[in-house]
Amino acid sequence: MPGAPEGLTVISDVTEETIVDQIEAASAKAAFVIVDLEGTANLLVSYAISFADFVVIPMQGSQLDAKQAGRQIRLIRAQERVVGRAIPFAVLFTRTSPAIMPRTQRHIEGRFAESEIPVLQTRLCDREAYRAIFSYGGTLSGLDGKNVSNIEVAIRNARAYAGEVVERLRQAKNVAKVA
Predict the structure, then answer these.
(1) For residue 179, is pLDDT > 60?
(2) CA–CA separation, 139 and 3 (whole Å)
(3) Are 63 and 57 in contact (CB under 8 A)?
(4) How big is the CA angle at 6 (ends 2 and 10), to the nearest 5 degrees?
(5) Distances, alpha carbon 7 to alpha carbons 25, 30, 33, 49, in Å
(6) How far does CA 122 lie from the centroid of its chain?
(7) Strands 124-125 and 89-96
(8) Three-state DSSP class for 88?
């Protein structure tokens, strides 16, 4: 899509054969490398996880998504054994209601807490502004407020998410230094 922010490079032609080289090359050039892959357990995802400083497992508040998140957590645990180090992760609830938490999501969050599965405090709410980026490209701040509602609220939500991820990365680095 057009309008990518300056300083953001998107690499879309990644395969199982090239992902390791792509991650290493990107890491040499940038402070942050975000690898966004589908949530299925395959070799491409396994390679990305093995390089990760922090894994975000996005899910909606449904039992089907919770089951898929469980598969991802098992894959992360397996990769930890392969690489011989802890791989920090957390679940991110997406497309949530900004006003009401459904019982299903509350139940899932309770089960995660019982199982000590880390969950980000920030939820990415279901907002037209996020959908608009996929339609029009660009950034949240570049959207037209006449055509998309609540852009400022979406920006605050996205910044809270980004800030929490950066804080989790800092915590993970501090734990790694102590270990």
Answers:
(1) no
(2) 7
(3) no
(4) 60
(5) 15, 9, 12, 24
(6) 11
(7) parallel
(8) coil
Closest CA to 59 of 72, 75, 78: 72
How far CA 13 is from CA of 10, 17, 22, in Å, comes to 9, 11, 10
Distance of alpha carbon 151 from alpha carbon 143, whole angstroms: 8
Secondary structure class of 145 (helix, strand, coil): coil
Domain architecture of the chain: domains with CATH? 19-127 (3.40.50.300)
**Torsion sign over Cα 53, 165, 42, 25:** negative
Asked if residue 153 lies in contact with residue 127, where contact means CB atoms within 8 angstroms, the answer is yes
Q: What size, in residues, is the chain?
A: 179
Q: What is the pTM of this model?
A: 0.91
- For the chain, the distance separating the N- and C-terminal CA atoms, rounded to the nearest angstrom, is 42
Mean per-residue pLDDT over the chain, rounded: 92
pLDDT in tens, 36-53: 988 776 899 999 999 999
d(CA 167, CA 32): 13
Torsion sign, CA atoms 135, 63, 67, 70? positive
User: What pLDDT is recorded for position 84?
Assistant: 96
Query: Computed over its alpha carbons, how large is the radius of gyration of the chain?
Result: 17
CA 151 to chain centre: 21
